[in-house]
Amino acid sequence: MTHHPESGTVVEQTRTARESGPSQTKKPHRTRVRWTIVFLVFLGMLISYIDRANLAVSLPYLKEDLGIAAGLSGLILGAFYWTYAACQMPLGRLVDRVGPRFLFAGAVVWWSICTALTSAVKGFGGLFGLRLLLGVGEAAAFPSGIKTVGTWFPLSERGRASGIVASGARAGSLLALPVVTALIAFVGWRGSFIITGAIGVVWAVVWVLYYRSPEKHSKVSPAELEFITEGRSTADDKREPIRWTKLIKNRNVTSVALGFWCVTFVEYFFITWFPTYLVQDRGFNLLQLGVLGMIPAITALIGQYLGGYTTDALLRRGWSVTRSRKTCIIVGSLLSSVIAFAAIAESAAVALALLSISTASIMFAVASIYCLPGDLSPRKEGVQSQEGSIAGIINGISNTAGIASPAIIGFILGATGSFVYGLFLAGAIAVLGVIFFAFGLKKIEPMTID
């Protein structure tokens, strides 16, 4: 949006309209471009999770064609998380410097190319290397999404916007199985990687063409811009950045990262071992797995949106940011511990119900956790906003649980022949997360940096 010096600020224009008589007191039109922006972020996250999960769906066909042993298959599935976790912090830092427009688009193109190139692999080495590169590209998605929410949404709507962004991951996981399976049936596993990779490139083109900051977007009305930027600086981010060490040493950032690690540990059971658990411990056949196994993913989506709506509703009722965010996070984290009771449930139906409550509760908490980088980022002139850097720190640390959770639960499974003790451990770690959030996380406000 172009502002002419003689036109004054948005606030001055609104005040002039109010003071110029009855004919000028009509409420300014507030556009809703911010919701289009967050929907595009949702689609980007959805694509990232389809591209992340398509290997797991294709693996039964792929490993036979390439002659990959079962042990090496486990290494390939885990390779993604090593680079994904390691690159969160540097890419979060970078998105604060350059903004999400080109970085997010470039990251999607990067991982889409890696996805498409998977169709040409000849063996273990090429596949392993591409999974490492895929993790590098996808590491930019979360910081870019959180940076976009912090840039485009005021505090009063940040919960719902963060819930939409986070739900892209759940929707991608939910769609990966039917979409990739259908593609394999029609074009083979190699063709499935080419098509899913091409989808990401199309998204990147749309993103670059449409995305601008609120101040520069031609479709944003003055009323929407005033609403978005109320209570914070609208200056661009060409300012002095904050050193990583100061962010990491901040008590709130560290507590959120550790608490989120605990939540993520539980979440990765559903991403990795959940189908095996239903088949091995609960006797599900393939049809039951395909139909009933989708229930926790559906409840997770519901929990995600409910969590975002609840934290915003509590703010509107006059609750403080600290009280509204911590209440949602603690309640969600605590309820996710019912995963432990699934281990001793007598029937498969009760176990599935408890697991569905657990994953819904995880996502209920995550909707508020995703708000915290924006809530904690410094908001003053001369200091660069840090949503991306804080998001990178939190997600980088928490996603090491993607390495630890499947390995530890798998080790327990191998030692005992059952998931019972692994689920007990996951429930205990969920309670540990509650402790970090309840006692480690203090007042939620923009951090003060000297």
Could you give the topology of this structure?
Elements: H1 10-19, H2 33-66, H3 70-86, H4 88-98, H5 100-117, H6 124-138, H7 141-152, H8 158-210, H9 222-229, H10 244-249, H11 251-272, H12 274-280, H13 286-292, H14 295-316, H15 321-336, H16 339-342, H17 348-369, H18 372-376, H19 387-398, H20 401-416, H21 420-440
Helix pairs in contact: 1-9, 2-3, 2-7, 2-8, 3-6, 4-5, 4-7, 4-19, 5-6, 5-7, 5-8, 7-8, 7-19, 8-14, 8-17, 11-17, 11-19, 11-20, 11-21, 14-15, 14-17, 15-17, 15-21, 20-21
Task: Describe, in short, the structure shown.
The chain is an all-alpha fold.
Key terms:
Growth Hormone, Chain: A; mainly alpha; globular; disordered N terminus; 2 domains
Low-confidence stretches: 1-25, 233-237
Identify the overall geometry.
Answer: globular
At CATH's second level, what is the architecture of the largest domain?
Up-down Bundle
* CATH domain topology of the largest domain: Growth Hormone, Chain: A
CATH homologous superfamily grouping of the largest domain: MFS general substrate transporter like domains
Q: Helix coverage percent of residues?
A: over 70%
Radius of gyration: 23 Å
Query: What is the residue-averaged pLDDT?
Result: 85
CATH class of the largest domain: Mainly Alpha
Number of helices: 21
Count of beta strands: 0
Biggest β-sheet strands, sense, barrel:
none
